[in-house]
Amino acid sequence: MLIRQLSVFLENKQGRFTQVAKLLGQEGINMTAFSVSENADFGILRLVVDETDRALDILRHHKYAVTEVDVLRLRCPNQPGALGRLMDVITQAGIFIEYMYAFSEGPSGYVIIRPDNLEECAEVLMAHKSQLTSVSDLYEL
């Protein structure tokens, strides 16, 4: 299932992630998944939240540089080799993954991926019986 992810560009200084986490928390927005990557000058906080539109408005109101992009979120068994098999399906279809991040809860793992072709990747995964999930599924864990 396609879900919306926010990318927040942060100055590479101590406390920048803390500011965003506190701001969203104070506004009652839950970060359900996130990843931080950085270089010498700035970091990119990629996050999935329970209220994307509100989070986008709040971050922009507080002068954060933020963009929105669609990604796929899917369930993957939390066992050795499962992610490799899943990625093999995507690779065999000729789909390039720009980035991904994952987390696990009990018997299931969840992977958020940004492929170069969202629709094709979703079709390939569904054809191979992969479970694409929504943000609301996170709250049923």
From TrEMBL:
Organism: Tannerella forsythia
Matches recorded under SUPFAM superfamilies: ACT-like
Family annotation (Gene3D superfamilies): VC0802-like
Database matches in PANTHER family: ACETOLACTATE SYNTHASE, SMALL SUBUNIT
ACT domain boundaries: 1-139
InterPro entries, per database record: ACT-like_dom_sf (IPR045865), ACT_dom_pair (IPR045739)
Residues passing through the membrane, by range: none
Pfam families to which the protein is assigned, alphabetical: ACT_8
Superkingdom to which the source organism belongs: Bacteria
Designated name of the protein: Amino acid-binding protein
